[in-house]
Amino acid sequence: MRIAGIYSKENNILKKIRNTPKYVKEKKFFSRIRIEDLVQIIKKTLNGKKRSMILNVADDRPATNVEVAKYAAKLLELKKIKAVPISKFKNKMIKNFYRDSKKVNNKLMKKELNVKLKYANYKLGLNNLLNKSI
């Protein structure tokens, strides 16, 4: 029953994406991380010798939201996606979020923790999300 509930929630999310596909027009770079990789990193940090180090946690490929949106649209077989300029958003938090690029270098994280990311880039993560929902 629990699995069916998760499946239907994911389907609802995909339906919403298919019905109102939008992305922010400006090309700002962002780093991302999948929860499974984050959990792995936290475990390695807590079980390691250097518990007090400061690391940037991110996947291997910073990307613009335009790249991510276009790839997601391709996976969902959407022909048209609508770009919305940041100036059109009413929410100040969203405007502030998109004000700057947020690229993160993860080399020290990978070296210090000997981490091999399961989802090293947004494409692997989106493919996994789509495959889970089908």
Our Rg estimate from Cα atoms comes to 17 Å
Number of domains: 1
Task: Give the strand tally.
Answer: 4
The protein's oligomeric status is: single chain
Strand content: 5-15%
How many alpha or pi helices? Answer: 6
Sheet with the most strands? 2 strands, parallel
* Overall pLDDT level: 81
Biggest sheet: strand arrangement: 1-4
> Any guess at the CATH architecture?
3-Layer(aba) Sandwich
Order of helices and strands: HEEHEHEHHH
Structural summary, described in words:
The protein has 134 residues and is mainly alpha-helical. It has one domain: Rossmann fold (3-Layer(aba) Sandwich). It is built from six helices and four strands; from the N terminus they run αββαβαβααα. A two-stranded parallel ribbon has the order 1-4. Helix 3 packs parallel to helix 6 (122-133). The longest helix is centred in the N-terminal third of the chain and has 18 residues, at 2-19.
Write the layout of secondary structure elements.
Blueprint: H1 2-19, E1 22-24, E2 29-30, H2 35-47, E3 63-64, H3 65-75, E4 82-84, H4 92-97, H5 107-113, H6 122-133
Parallel strand pairs: 1-4
Antiparallel strand pairs: 2-3
Helix pairs in contact: 3-6
Descriptive key words:
134 residues; mainly alpha; Rossmann fold; 6 helices; 50% helix; disordered N terminus
What is the compact description of this entry?
The protein has six helices and four strands; from the N terminus they run αββαβαβααα. It has 134 residues and is mostly helical. Residues 1-7 have low confidence and may be disordered.
